[in-house]
Design goal:
The structure is a homodimer.
Chain A: H1 3-33, H2 40-58, H3 61-73, H4 79-96, H5 99-122, H6 125-146, H7 152-160, H8 166-190, H9 205-219, E1 226-230, E2 236-240, E3 243-248, H10 256-273, H11 290-304, H12 308-321, H13 330-336, H14 354-369, H15 378-390, H16 416-436, H17 439-444, H18 449-458, H19 468-476, H20 483-497
Parallel strand pairs in A: 1-3
Antiparallel strand pairs in A: 2-3
Helix pairs in contact in A: 1-2, 1-3, 3-4, 5-6, 6-7, 8-14, 8-20, 9-10, 9-12, 10-11, 11-16, 12-13, 14-15, 14-16, 16-20
Chain lengths: ~500, ~500
């Protein structure tokens, strides 16, 4: 096969695989937002059939042949080489992991999820321990199949953050943890709590919905190519570049949950809508990693949405949407968006302590995969780390080790992408500021397009042309580091609490 | 291959094909009700990929081998024989019709639809004539591929109403037309119009929605296994027995559009929810034909929903839902549900004239397929038939031959299923009344379950175990005929207009 034939064949076959992924995304969105309860059994069957078809397509000899030809002939660093590298992530998984193991993992995930729900309800880790052990063991086997003799945690990371390595993440996370812990401690020990009463009020759902849509539209989310629906857990799914669906939830007594949820998901959505149109249906047309995805959501949620400039612009709209809410001005509003308070539950954590929650999980899941920690010792390790990093010790497993769904779904190596994204958000935002000037002044004038254009140019349009570390370095001029995130957090705690170390 | 192996293989392979069909149904529902406008291009690609996979699955030699073994060994009249017969409908199509022709038809449909929209807007048939000619020609080729030397119209009917034949339908439709035309003429000539002002008022959308849901729930539609959403054109789609989705639309000034639309779709939905659970994923687990489907929607819409008994029960709910609507009692309401008035547009036609609209189309599409009518002579033939059957002559093509989407989608042989269903509804309802006694008294007491149980037992639970003619005869004791429909229409026109002939 010559290169141009191989490339055409690759493109055709991959287009079909990409369609199956899109269909799977739609089924998932539908299940979370629309499907009647009775549909669950037939839906599981539909999903399994699609998975089987995708697996078969990834195992097709003609695809492998086309990929091999492309790999041999594509110049290093070329677009085609990037396509092959990215495609191989999925192909390798389909080829190297035995179908029986894949099925076993799928079943263990279903079982794990159900047991986890019961265990969390009963706040009883022992109920879940057996299932978790099995999931860890199956993932170890999967890692061994993917990279015989390699680092098991790296193989797991690879599924969410291609190119990331435990050895690279370790110093990065250690640096953040080392510098963040004393900052949080200082706030706890020396600072008074912020009076949050102005954030409490009566916020009707339909008005929150209209207000959040207005914010999402203002920052550039295109509702002709997307939607916003209610769901239990907010998420964003890019079925296609022009069919990007976000979900939200709300607290009728506090506007912050919905507003920052929607800004967060809008960040994901803007990334999906900005992926390279000319690469549609090819591997490079997809988002590069969960960490980079999270960098976009965190950037819009935190660096834009929690800024003074943003609220100078947004407050008149806020007052119009919620005429009965407590009167606030920007100076009074701002601290409400930057409170720091150690708490047990990650998803309710503030922007400073959040990364310490992740640090706990990063420590533990690495140790689990490396057999340095036994599942039965997990609760104690968890509680110790919370005490050490956050100064609080969970009183039960539901508020502790059982709080997250991820491990119950057999997802190890997922948590670090949250902190990678948070670091990258700060670093990208700092770089954009250097290029564009006074971003806060733009926000205050309701001008978000320059920032979006910058992200389109430096992040979105590349899809997965470069792996995440290279993408961040190209966009910001330096490798990913914790510095900009720390600087941002120091500045906000200084302003809100008068504490900077 | 022995029979039990063949049967198991057939079941496995068919289960996957059925899943692909369900996924396609979900994509269609989503496109009509949820998809953002921008998603249309990527959606078309997803649909085409799924179609390709389905086509490949239907062409798989192992499926054909399994089917052949089953066909040879299954006793005549057995369940397995019915499975094979039903499966063969889809398999034959995939095998006998060349892929190139299928693709050409799909393209011509897309092109036809777009041209038809423009032609209808301009009320200019000439714009559309070329495309229609092509569609007729392609369908003729398809018919020849499906049944070389056979009757082309039969091959078309087969796609929607398996087992139906032009030669059988012809006398049935002629009988109805012959007896219905003078009845309608008598109403026009001798009867005064019904004063419909009590049906006009202010009907807020949310209250119509709540009222319609209440009606659908009362007659037995299970919302734990279904939904009701807004769309431009109401439809019902059974993604799975426990995931049945209906849509509706409303007129803010007249409650009848929404109420009878939802009762109609609920009839479809009850059928889908009542299909045999133990045949899920097998051909017999699906609805047998469009005609039988329509019999269920028409039965609940007309024979239940337009009855005095129903409104004796429903009126208190109606008054509660629409406290500001004009005051009516059952005697005043009833004629509003049975007005007869010849009009140009089929979808707005009353229950008596509706079948004459279908008669026009049945005449014309048979003549087109048989080359007895040229596309260029279509408008005149159409207008002549309207004058002959309904006493009115369309003033332009938009109100005439261009009004329906069906031919633009290349669907010939579809229209008769509407009248087949309407006849079957009357015949089934009469049979149910003989078995169950005073249905009107039950409806007045809000008791719809006995009728639903009867339909479950005599229609729904059989899926496509028997073809439509046999199913109707088994359920009612006689072959399908126009008599019960005519008796019903005579009775209502007698009561409303004092006209019975």
């Amino acid at each position: 096969m010559d290169l141009s034939t191989a490339e055409r064949r690759f493109r055709e076959l991959w287009g079909d695989i990409r369609d199956l992924i899109s269909v799977g995304d739609l089924l998932e969105w539908d299940q979370e937002t629309q499907m009647p309860a009775g549909g669950v059994e037939s839906r599981a069957k539909m999903v399994a059939t699609l998975e089987g078809l995708k697996h078969r397509a990834l195992n097709a000899p003609e695809l492998h042949e086309a990929l091999d030809t492309c790999a041999e002939s594509a110049p290093e660093g070329s677009l085609l080489a990037a396509q092959v590298r990215s495609a191989r992530l999925d192909v390798d998984r389909a080829v190297k992991v035995p179908a029986s193991l894949t099925r076993e993992i799928a079943e263990a995930r279903v079982g794990g999820l159900e047991t986890w729900r019961r265990a969390r309800e009963a706040a009883d880790f022992d109920l879940f321990a057996g299932h978790l052990e099995k999931l860890v063991e199956l993932r170890r086997q999967e890692a061994a199949a993917l990279d015989p003799g390699g680092n098991a945690y790296d193989a797991m990371l690879h599924l969410f953050e291609p190119g990331a390595k435990e050895a690279d993440l370790e110093p990065l996370f250690a640096d953040l943890r080392e510098k963040l812990t004393p900052l949080v401690q200082a706030v706890i020990e020396r600072a008074p709590q912020v009076d949050e009463t102005p954030a409490a009020g009566d916020f009707p759902a339909d008005r929150q919905h209209a207000f959040c849509r207005r914010l999402a539209t203002a920052i550039g989310f295109d509702f002709d190519s997307g939607r916003l629906d209610l769901s239990t857990h907010p998420f964003c799914i890019g079925i296609a570049r022009q069919d990007v669906r976000m979900t939200w939830r709300y607290d009728p007594r506090d506007f912050r949950s919905a507003v920052f949820g929607v800004l967060h998901e809008s960040g994901h959505g803007l990334y999906e809508q900005g992926l390279p149109a000319d690469q549609r249906g090819m591997p490079v047309g997809d988002a590069v990693s969960l960490g980079v995805h999270e960098s976009q959501s965190r950037l819009w949620e935190n660096h834009v949405g929690r800024s003074r400039g943003f609220w100078s612009w947004a407050l008149p709209h806020y007052r119009e949407a919620f005429p009965d809410a407590p009167e606030v001005d920007v100076d009074r509003m701002w601290p409400l968006l930057h409170t720091v308070r150690p708490s047990f539950i990650r998803v309710e954590a503030d922007e400073a302590t959040y990364n310490l929650h992740i640090a706990v999980r990063f420590e533990i899941e690495r140790a689990l995969l490396a057999r340095k920690l036994e599942v039965r010792d997990l609760p104690e390790a968890w509680d110790d780390l919370y005490e050490q990093l956050l100064g609080i010790r969970p009183e039960n497993a539901a508020d502790g080790v059982l709080q997250d769904i991820h491990w119950a779904q057999g997802m190890f190596g997922y948590f670090p992408t949250y902190t990678l994204g948070t670091m990258a958000a700060a670093q990208l935002f700092a770089a954009a500021g250097r290029d564009l000037g006074d971003l806060e002044a733009m926000f205050a004038a309701g001008e978000f397009q320059p920032l979006l254009d910058w992200l389109r140019e430096n992040v979105h349009r590349h899809g997965s042309r470069w792996q995440a570390p290279e993408l961040i370095e190209r966009a910001t001029g330096s490798p990913l580091a914790a510095d900009d995130l720390l600087a941002y957090l120091r500045q906000t705690t200084e302003e809100v609490y008068g504490v900077s170390e």
